[in-house]
Amino acid sequence: MIKILHIIDFLCLGGAARSMIAISKYSSRIDNKLHHQVISLKKAHPSAIDLAQQAGMEYLEYQDEKERNEIIASADIVHIQYWNNPQMFSFLHSELPPTRLIIWFHVSGDNAPQVITRDLINYADFAIPCNPHSYELPVIKQLKPEIRHKKVGMVYDAADFERVENVQPQPHEGFNVGYMGSLSFSKMHPNYISMSAKANIPEVKFILCGGGNIELLKQQASELNVLDKFDFRGFVEDIASEIAKFDVYGYPLCEDTYAAAELNLQEVMYAGIPPIVLPHGGVKKLIINNYTGLMVDSELEYSQALEYLYHNPQERLRLGKNAKEYASQIFGAENAAKQLNPIYHKLLETPKRSRQWSIPVDGNLLDEPISLIDVVDIPTQFYGAKTFIESLGDTAPQFVSNLTSNDTQELFKTDEIIAKSSTLLGMGEGGIIQYLNHFPEDGYLRFWTALILEKEGKIKDAFGQFIVAINKGCNHWRVYWYLAQVADYLEEINVMEQALNNLEQNVLNFKPVQQLREKLNQLLLAETELLNIKFTEINYLIFPNWQSDEETLTEELYNLIFSLAKNSPVSDSPLSKESWEGSTLVIDTTGITEEDANLFLSGIAMNLMMEEELDLENTLDFALINNLNDRTWNKLLPKITAKITLENENQDIVNQLNLEDLVTIEGNGNNYAIFPDWKADQEELALEIGEVLMNLSDQENCTLLVNLNNVDQEEVGLFFSEIAMNLMLTEDIELSNNLQINFVNFTAHQWQRLGGLIKEKMTINYEDLPDN
To answer: Measured between alpha carbons, how far is 287 from 213 in angstroms, rounded to an integer?
Structure first.
């Protein structure tokens, strides 16, 4: 019995695992002396274990590296199922026992991060690209002819055609375009929805089978008002029942796709469904244009190809028939096994060998090209970044420069390139974030992740990653500069100040730092001024329009301040009086200097003292604010009891701010108050409140303050909505926008200090007045 041990990163139901299982099944059928085993570097999926065992594979578990290496040592051949990921790459860097080693590449191999590197080929006894495109890559063509002939051969990824053996077209309404596989933009074309929707085909339905960015795809379809054209099925095991409904197979992938010998494409071709593809990755060598399918060069051509096959059913039949015949002869696990078994037997004629990463098992080390990463001493704390770079070969030199260069201009340039990394390189399989998850202590992987997150607008996430990157040793001064900028955006003043302090110590005459320092000083000044405001239990906010007629504004502010400084009718009636405590009127001074505003208010105060004998000293404080930033507003607004609306109001400022959660009171005194007893019978209480709303429905610009007495505001809001709906249905009264209803949790003292702004406390039978 010859033991063939397959090693895979994750034994699941994905394409690489299915290919491995299928080829093992047919390999053993052709040669029953070959016994196939498998270990998974990650915890295997139970369904995949079952599928492997049904195919005759032996699934082996191990507890640690020692036990794993014992399994490897006992195998006659080790067969690596390769795509770039940190688990597999770390495994290849580990110390392994002598073995005969095959690496089967399940990626196209020419786009980062899914790259077939020279080190990988040198490490293997035999290297197998899984499609013609990969076999023709420079990394293989540039091998010495004798080495290439000895250790490289092409074997297609192996589809098990038993899954689609008996597919028969099912009659259906409309025109169905199928898609199976990953719905992530690291593989799928990012404009799949729009380019599909542009096809002018009546009753078209795009059937998508697979997992990924389903909600994002639905959102894109909704924005184009074409959601009804797309049917998202999720993961589908019984693909034959879905393929039977397809008229064509639309499979446009992203430009930097790592797609290689796509099993789903092989399966639909075997079932006689004509595909439409873009010439990206290994896919371009899987079909013969205009013979087994259509290969198009643009989004527009893709839409046109869909229309062409819709209008030409005979052409669909011709292409489908050719596709089926071609797939039967070229693709499939049985054909692949016929190619792979001789490779196994040839390798068995050679002895097991020890191997070490970056040292070729064949050829001469002196013949190998030297990269910068080989000669520069990289600190061990950045081993994760170094490993990631090695996995990319020579396809992404920006990372090498970013890790090793001392040239500031080059560092900023490579930062920008990294920030613009594709979805696949940044967040896809084998990308930066996946390596970061495997090497969480690596500061450079943190830094690169932060650059990508910031570019994508995920500023808060980038902020956290920049901080951790610095703490993990990636502390070049420019990292502090990036941190200072995102801290500025998030208004994290303390972090911004610390970052700028570091920059000023380590880099001289960097003008952007000086500019940001000036902005920081303004922010700190605004916060200091805010801290100097004498906030009390009662704080009002107004936005005067200082450009309005001076006499009119003076009169309005005079009346407002007078009202705030005297007893309220509320406190004169059923509510007991308390001793006066001062309140604060916060005044926005946009459009006037602070000096002029103080003179303006001093004049009003003097007139109140002379005409009304009203001294504001112990009753009302003025606090002037101007040009506050968002952070300062966010600190100020929770302290505000109510915003008072003026007739002469600066609407530009009011509209810029989010004041929806503030209680609003009419400055002209057209305000009413009720104090419902929420424990009363709800029907009776609703009738009482309905009467109040009816009486106020004809008022011009009035406000009704409803005392919550600490009950749930959302429930009260629903209660009022029902009352308003009932008034409209039974009394034909529709409450206008002139009536503003505010739900408040004012204390008795706050009610008292509303002063003359309350026109009337409207009495209802079921009242619950605030405690004294």
So the answer is: 27
pTM (predicted TM-score): 0.75
Residue 617 pLDDT > 50, yes or no?
A: yes
Amino acid at the residue 337: A
Q: Residue 264, Cα to own-chain centre: how many angstroms?
A: 28
* Count of Cβ atoms closer than 10 Å to residue 213 Cβ: 18
Range 162-325: architecture per CATH: 3-Layer(aba) Sandwich (3.40)
- 97: exposed, middle or buried (Cβ count in 10 Å: 0-12, 13-18, 19+): middle
Please give the C-alpha separations between residue 454 and each of 256, 450, 483, 503, 701, in angstroms, as whole numbers. Answer: 22, 6, 10, 20, 46
For residue 573, pLDDT beyond 60: no
Average pLDDT score over residue span 739-756: 81
| Residue 103: its H or E element | strand 101-105
The CA distance from 483 to 503, in Å, is: 11
Here the tokens at position 332 are 């499939």
User: Where is 664: in which H helix or E strand?
Assistant: strand 664-666
| 162-325 matches 373-531 in fold | no
- HSE toward the beta carbon, residue 533, CA cutoff 13 A: 30
How would you classify the pairing of strands 758-761 and 620-625? unpaired
737: β partners? none
- CATH number of the 373-531 domain: 1.25.40.10
The topology under which CATH files domain 2-158 is Rossmann fold (3.40.50)
- On whether the CB atoms of residues 180 and 262 are closer than 8 A, the answer is no
**CA–CA dist 217, 403 (Å, integer):** 36
**Beta carbons within 8 Å of 344's beta carbon, 6+ residues apart:** 2, 4, 27, 34, 77
How many alpha carbons fall within 13 Å on the CB side of residue 477? Answer: 15
Q: State the maximum Cα–Cα separation within the chain, in Å, rounded to a whole number.
A: 114
Q: In the chain, where are the structural domains located?
A: 2-158, 162-325, 373-531, 536-772
| Peptide bond just before 113 cis, omega within 30 deg | yes
pLDDT in tens, 145-167: 999 999 999 999 999 999 999 89
- Helix, strand, coil share (%) of the chain residues, nearest 5: 50, 15, 35
Q: Any idea which residue has 């770079």 for tokens? A: 389
